[in-house]
Protein: Acyl-CoA dehydrogenase
Organism: Vreelandella piezotolerans
Amino acid sequence: MPSYQAPLRDMRFVMNEMFDYPSHYAALPNGEEASPDVVGAILEEGARFARDVLLPLNQSGDEEGCLLEGGEVKAPRGFKEAYQQYVEGGWPSLAADPEQGGQGLPPSLAMMLSEMICATNLAWGMYPGLSHGAADALRHHGTDAQKATYLTKLVEGVWTGTMCLTEPHCGTDLGLIKTRAVPAEGDAYQITGTKIFISAGEHNLAENIVHLVLAKLPDAPEGSKGISLFVVPKFLPDAEGNPGQRNGVSCGSLEHKMGIHGNATCVMNFDGATGYLVGAPNKGLACMFTMMNAARLGVGIQGLGLMEASFQNSLGYARDRLQMRGLSGVQAPDKAADPIIVHPDVRRMLLTQKAFAEGGRMLVLYTAQMLDVVEHGAAGEEKERAETLLGLLTPIVKAFLTEVGFECTNEGVQIFGGHGFIKEWGMEQLVRDARITRLYEGTTGIQALDLLGRKVLMSQGESLKVFTKEIHKFCQAEADNPALKEFIEPLAKLNAQWGELTMGIGMKAMQDREEVGAASVDYLMYSGYVAVAYLFARAAKQAASAQGGEDAAFYTAKLNTARFYYQRLLPRTKAHAAMIQAGAGSLMAISSEDFGLGFEI
Amino acid sequence: MPSYQAPLRDMRFVMNEMFDYPSHYAALPNGEEASPDVVGAILEEGARFARDVLLPLNQSGDEEGCLLEGGEVKAPRGFKEAYQQYVEGGWPSLAADPEQGGQGLPPSLAMMLSEMICATNLAWGMYPGLSHGAADALRHHGTDAQKATYLTKLVEGVWTGTMCLTEPHCGTDLGLIKTRAVPAEGDAYQITGTKIFISAGEHNLAENIVHLVLAKLPDAPEGSKGISLFVVPKFLPDAEGNPGQRNGVSCGSLEHKMGIHGNATCVMNFDGATGYLVGAPNKGLACMFTMMNAARLGVGIQGLGLMEASFQNSLGYARDRLQMRGLSGVQAPDKAADPIIVHPDVRRMLLTQKAFAEGGRMLVLYTAQMLDVVEHGAAGEEKERAETLLGLLTPIVKAFLTEVGFECTNEGVQIFGGHGFIKEWGMEQLVRDARITRLYEGTTGIQALDLLGRKVLMSQGESLKVFTKEIHKFCQAEADNPALKEFIEPLAKLNAQWGELTMGIGMKAMQDREEVGAASVDYLMYSGYVAVAYLFARAAKQAASAQGGEDAAFYTAKLNTARFYYQRLLPRTKAHAAMIQAGAGSLMAISSEDFGLGFEI
């Protein structure tokens, strides 16, 4: 069975040594609760829960999958008990508002716990995971009565939530949805329609499920401007707020999927189900983005967790597996062959995992600080800046970390050789589980359009400048630091090029809107590489200044990881830059009909 | 269910229009049999067999998998009947030696059929697929009696073959094998040991199975110089050559794998099984490479087939699925939304599949001509040249086509969005099936060491020069062709850089052997991109000169595909070149112990 230890030392490095989380937390309202001691204790307790409770259920959950019987879904063996422990431990309410019974700790802290959960059991993690989005939507857009009825239960974790958006004929293009909401008694509506790909849509972990459902009111405007959001509970709460009458919503079937078998991905049938409007009529898309943005960060963290899990197990295997002698001579003369970690190409793969996991963690914790300020900070310039950066970085966190996360889980299989393909070792499950992260909550292509189109170009590049200026200042400040020369020089160039590429696309897009789509994914990947390069340069600065002492080996390894990232991963920006500059021409040249002339008769 | 049409038009373009296969075949002994009409008819018949017989069994085979009961393995429903049809159709003997009952057609032709089989049912294709390697080993190294007993049956397809190399503790490093061969009565040996990952090791498709087994003789030298090859039949042939007494070899268990579920991947126990030496004692490794090289080309073709399959179905989906409007305006005003093929990023993914599939086909058919000459051509300069090119290109075909093949099957999932993750659509199966191709018959890392270490550097770069000279001549000849300027200029530069990079590695490697391993995979990928770029330039030349006429749209699409390849895929060489030049330093810096300091306590 795969093993896992939460990377607590690395988390401490990023939180305390790089980003000064102690001061950051202290400056937040309620921040005194998040003292370094408390944070440390929570992370350690979470690490134990993930390792001891969730990890042992990961492979068995994958093998068993979920069972739909008589309309009820049974999650794999042990999932329900683990969820009970999770609720009893108070984990769901960690970062929730004290007004709704939450502990009021900063969301960034919950994100580090989320990394551990995703690393050990992604399928399980999606049962409580979706509740956050539903809770966010209710917190921001729900009435006081809705908050009292649903939000408190979601925060406690005794009920879980879903996001019911996708329908068979539409996922990305939600303007096409067919689910209808017809006014009924009082403030109720009757919801009718079919939703697909509903994670945790039906299960036996919690006593009730709160569906957040997109539907159209009668006479709603066409397209995305005519979408409204409704809350539709599985059991209608009774007068005491406990689950009462069964509502007209049920699971029609479970999807058979490539991965995350332990999670129930449901077709949900709404058959005149009773629902209540959340937010204003026809403004459901805005409410949905509230859920979606939280969910997108969450999916990026899934990529991070999965690569860390793959890295740790690959490292163990690479140290144990004996195969061939080192190219420059025998390394382990007492053994029949050398451990494969001596081979440079195995090291290249391990370092790819290590660098992306550590880089991803920095990116998440950098973005998480912005989220803390947006959620809890006082209005003002700092909050505005945090909002801009959060908006800019959310699609990068989501898409970049899931793209490289998938790559890293595949490196894990590759390091295991043929054994990586065998289920027993657990490495191929990480690949199958990781595959969905590039798709759900908006594919990489959609994230890329969000980044380049909505975030960067719509602001005339201003949102990007907030970030590139910060990088520029850092480069200027360290320009004369000889220890950082190898990082600052390439970073400054790439940072300048980032702006130039943006300008170039903007100019071309004025002539031809297709240029935005043509450049978008390469632009997102370029952005991800440079953002992580900036953070590795800061890590290198920290590590260089902290060298010596009892953690000397840790800092040296960190410096060398930064070096590897700059020398062996960052050059990929050269390719992305060239492909961005190549433009849309070669993409648009072949007609739909002529695409298949090689095989169509 | 996924659909498939063999890309006959594209095959004709490459074979007849680009590489003049008619003359190539005519120049081979027995070549008059391979007239364009015969070749065309065989390809069309093969296309029907793949589409009508194999494709319908692909998803069901994946779902059912294989069953081990009482030592017997049952392949999925329909596999046995399809195999009977395959044998009755004379397919196994197509390219085999007439002396052993083969049809004596060139191996290149069998490779195009193999593409179709891999595209429609890889798991099935591995039952007959492994026989070729076993047959090759016997043909080259077997005694006349062994040929009479085993080879004829393998050629007919009434028996199938395996390659029993890997053991639990060693795959790449076969010098470590523990299986023993002890002399017994007459020329027989008793073979004892355990082999794992044996594809088609046991099954119900054929009446006998011929295992080619690596084992060590008593007092054999240590390591890879002490390996011998044995033929070990499942049933010992009786006096008439029919399956007689059951031999002491049996399937201990079946592996549970990420993909190719329909193929039986067996743990094989040899328990004093009777075997016969093939080739000279302790020279088994050379015999094994005979099998291995054929198998490596075969695996590259698996990558090709899978990407073509993914491309075709992605194209169909992209034309049908309606989602969002085109960025530059409505494209299908009569529909609720535009088909997603209008979106540039969807086109980028489709074109990536199309360009790699067409590029891969050119690379396979270029290499296949060399194989034809090596197998059938008369001794002389041309044959020597073909041997050099075949040796150089085999690891590139194997590793490059499986790496980009995996990428392309993943693009297929991405184009399908969330539906790509659902089993029903068949796209995720292609990913799972493709995943093994990067591993078996030598991982990408092993192919890369073969290319850079054995093939290029060991020949002081001479083998590479044979190929780069050809490219150089082509670039010179077309230097003044304005229609090809956009291809020739970058190709000439990359070709020159290929030599420079090689020299650079060679120089560094004289100081430090680790530099070879550190550069190897990036070098292999760089080589693959440039080789395919050369072939796309030739395709563009052909298409440019053939424009007009009734196939004008085909040639225009080909030119545009070449353009896409040059503009949007070939720039990846920039990254690979930079990573090669970065050297081994950052890979070797961190000690095995310090790799895990972020999480190990």
Q: What stands out?
A: Chain B has a mean pLDDT of 96. The radius of gyration of chain B is 24 Å. The first strand of chain B starts at residue 67 and ends at 69. Residues 549 and 555 of chain B are 10 Å apart (CA to CA).
